[in-house]
What does this fold into?
Amino acid sequence: MARTRKQSPKRPSRPSRKPGSERGGNSRADLDVHVLEQISAGAPLPHVLETICLGMEALTEGMRASVLLLEDGVRVRHGAAPHLPAKWTTWIDGRAIGPNEGSCGTAAFRKQPVIASDISTDARWVKYRDAALEFGLRACWSLPFFDADGNVLGTFAMYYDRPRTPTVTQLGLAEHAGHLASVAVQRHRAHAAIAQSEETARLIIEQALDANVVIDAAGLVRGWNPRAQAMFGWTADEATGQPLAELIIPPRLRREHQNGLRRFTETGRGTIIGRRVEMPAVHRDGRELRVVLAITPIRRGDQTMFSAFIEDVTESHRTAAALRESERHLALIYDHVADVLFELQVEDAGYRFISVNPAFLSVTGLAREQVVGKFVHELLPEPSRALATAKYEEALRTRGTVRWEELTNFPAGPRLGEVTVTPVFGSQGRPTVLIGSVRDLTARRQMENEVRQLQKLEAIGRLSGGIAHDFNNILAVILGVGNMLLKDVGDDEVRNQLEEIMEAGRRGATLTRQFLAFARKQVLEPQPLDLSATVRELSSIMKRLLRADITMKLDLAEQPGTIMGDPSQLEQVVMNLVVNARDAMPEGGRLTIETADVDLDEVRAAQLVATPGPSVRLTVSDTGVGMSDETRRRLFEPFFTTKEAGKGTGLGLATVYGIVKQSGGTIDVQSAPGQGASFTLYFPRATGTPGTKTERTGHRDSWGRGLAGLNILLVEDEPALRTAFSRMLNRLKCRVTLAANGADALEIVERGEITPDLLITDTVIPGISGHELARRLAKALPRLKILRMSGYADPEISKAESSESLGTFVQKPFTLPELAQAVERAMES
It folds into this structure.
C-alpha cells in the first residue's frame, strides 16, 4: 500500500460540535452524507479519511481521531490524524502489527477492538508508552475495519489526553467511523482498479484501430497501412506483393481462403463479403490473433480489389473473460457477506423480493422459494410491516437512503437489525428497485444491556459504600460511648437497655460490613490461599448447614495455584453460595463444589470482564429450581431476593459479588428455570506459599493497662467522633490533644504544644491525607508511633495494610477494649 499522507490537497475544516451529537443526532447523519458525497465525487482518500476524523472529533468531546491503513497485512500506514502530533504519526508510520503493538497494531492483528483506558499501565503499550505519554496521549480505543471478505483494511482510533473508559455510545461512534472508513477505502481501491481497467481499455482501443489491407484478385497485397504493420509485424515494404494468405492467415485456413477468393472472382458471391466476421489470424512471429474483419470488394474497371478493415479483438476476448471473472467475484461477495442483502422491485401492488443473499435466509430462517417473488407485506409481520412500508415510501419520496432500527419476529427467532434502503430510479425518473441491507444488532444490543447492568451495579456499589461509611461514623460514636456507659452504670435495668443499644449497634456494624463488601470498600487482609484447603476446612460446617435430602460432592484440585485473598472473607463467600444453593433445592438435590487451575485467553477473559492469564476456578453448582434471565441479571443487586418476606435480606449474593471483585476476581452465573444454577468464580493466580489463616486479636482481660500517661495526638475531622474517641482515650488515662485536620496537627507539633508518643489519625481527612501526615511527623519525630483508622478502604487508603504504610491500622467502628488493644499494638510495633 502506498503512503497517502502527502496526497491530501487541503485539510477539511473541523465541523462544529452540535448539542446532542453524542447521541447520534443530525451531526452524525450530516457527516455520513458529507463523506458519501466526497466518495461519490471521487475525492482523494486522505481527504475523505480526514473528513471522517474531523467529523468524529466534533461528535466526541476531547477526542483526537486517527485512521491507520494496513499495508500487505503486516504493517500500518498513516491514513489521517488531523489533530495528533505530526512527530507521533511519523513515528508509528510503517510499524508492524502484533499482539502487543499498542491499541491499533494489536487491534489489526487480533481483528477485534482494543481498549487501552490508561496507556501508562496497559501492557500492550510497553513499546510505545514513553512516546505516547510524551505527546500527551493517555487513552486509546482502536477498532479494526474490514472489507467484505473480513480482511482488515485498517483501524479507527480515538485518543484522549487522560485515562478514560469508553461508553457504549462512543464505541458505537467508533464502529460507525470504521464502517465509513471501510467504504471509503474499498471505494478508493475499486476506483483505482477501474481507472487501471479504463487505462487498459484505452490502450486496447488504440491498438485495435482497424488495420487496412488491400489485395488484388490473385490475393497479393497491394495496400498495408501502419496499423497493419503494428498488428501483424510486417512492414509495408515487406508485405506489398506477397500473398496475404502467407502473411496473416493460419495454415489450416489458407486453402479455404483461396477457394473463397476464386469463387467470388468467378461468381460474384462470397460467404464473408460485406459482413463482419471473426476469425483467427497469425502474427509474423507465429502467434495467433483473434480478429474481426469486414471485406468490401472494390471494382476498378475490369479489375477487382478487396479492401479489408481488420480489428484485433484478442484483448477484447481476454477482457470479456476478466469481466466474467469479476461478475463471478461480485456474486461470491453477495453470497458470503455477513450483512443481510436484498433487492425489492417497486410495483403498484407493493414491494416484491427479487433477490436475497444467503445471510438473509440464515437470519430469517426462511427458504429462498418462500421469499423471492413474494411481496413484503406477505412476509413481514406487524408492526414491522407497517414500519418497513413507511420507510420504503420515505426513501422514494426523498430519493435518498433511509436508515432505521427494527425488531422483527422471524421463524429463526426475533432479530434486531439496522436496516438501510436506497432507491434506484429508471431513465424516466420512475423508481424501479430498492436496494436494502440489514446489519444484525441482536448480539451487540445484548452486550450493551450487559454493560448497562454492570454500570448499574457499580453505581449502587458507590452509593452503598458512601452510606455505609457515614453510618460507620455514627455507629462508632454509639458503640464507643455505649461501651463506656456500660462500665459506669450499675443499675441492671439501665445496663440491659444499654446492652440492647449496643446489640443494635453491633447489628448495624454487621450490616455496614455487608454494604462495604458489596461496594468493595472494606479493609481486607489478603494472604496466599489454597482454595481447595479452604473448602475442605469448611466441609464439616457446610454439611451441618445442609438438610438430609441434599448430598454434597467435593471435586477439589489436589494442589491448585495460590490466590491472594482474605481467608475469612472468602470463607463467607463459600458459605453464602452454599446457603443460596441449599435454599434453591427445597425438595433436595445435589450440591457440587469444584476447584481447578485454568488459563483464561483474551476472548474468554473479555466475556467475563476478567484479567487474562493463569487463574484458579471455584465452582458451586446445584440441581435446584434455577432462575430466569431477568432474575440472573439482578442477582447481585442489594436487597434483591426471590425468597418470601422474612427469609432473606437480599445481601448475601451482593456481599459475594463485592468480596470477589475486591479480591481481583470475577463471577459467571449460568442457570435456567428447572436446570439448577452454577456460580463460577475466577481468581488470578498468585505467587507465595499458602499459610494458616491470620488470627485477629481477640478479647483480653488486660486491655488498657500500661497506657496511662501516653501523649496522644488525635486527628479526626468528624466532631462527634473526635469527642467520643477523646473520651475513650481519657478513660484509658491518656493525655489527648485534638486536631480537626492535618494542617492543625502539624501546627500543634511545630509550636511545641505537645511531643506525642502516638499519632492516631483518620486516613481520609481534609487537606493533607492521614498517610501524608503520618509520613511528615514520622520524619520529624523518629520515635513517634502511628495508629491509622478508617471506615473503609477507599483508593486513597488502599495502603492500609501494605508494606508502604506507617504504623498499624484499626477499622471503625470499635469499642473501648478494641481501641485499647489497637493502641497497645501500635506502641509495640
